[in-house]
Amino acid sequence: MADVETAPAPVVNLSLLIEYLEEEVREKQLQNRATEALALRRRGESLDKLCMSEGLQGQAGLDAYVSQLVARLRDFPYMSLPGGRQAGCWVRDEVVAPCFVGYWDFYSNQKRGQGLGMWELWTLLCGTNMLLDRLRFAQREE
After folding, report:
1. Is residue 113 classed exposed, middle or buried when 0-12, 13-18 and 19+ CB atoms within 10 A define those classes?
2. What stretch of H or E contains 81?
3. What is the mean pLDDT of each run of 10 residues along the chain (142 residues)?
4. Which of 7, 31, 35, 139 would give a disulfide with 14, using CB separation of 3.0 to 4.6 Å?
5. What contacts 106, CB < 8 A, 6 or more positions away?
6. 54 touches 113 (CB < 8 A)
7. 3-state secondary structure of 105
């Protein structure tokens, strides 16, 4: 039986993941929605108009969106980052996954407790020293 050489996986950079998340934030207008959600929450009003995904409204719609987002983050080819498996595991397990602790189980893609509200999602993605900041820091280490 002849030895079959497999081509090495193409190297990917964190810029791909960062750009995807930045586009999601822009496209979904998460900052505006988060600000509006916070105001609605303070007034005790329904968040249904802000949180829609696949025909779902309110928290169910937001949960469906977070589940899709986590699935995309889990599917990112971390092991193809420069630095290989060691770097990929570090980014996935020490940079990305900890941002979801207490809200969402990153590895099983399951909601924990009350999950994420719109403000919490925006903060998780865009807050100081949160996911995008952490990924940008990790990118400098590539």
Report:
1. exposed
2. none
3. 63 96 96 92 83 78 94 97 95 98 97 94 97 96 75
4. 139
5. 70, 73, 74, 96, 97, 100
6. no
7. strand
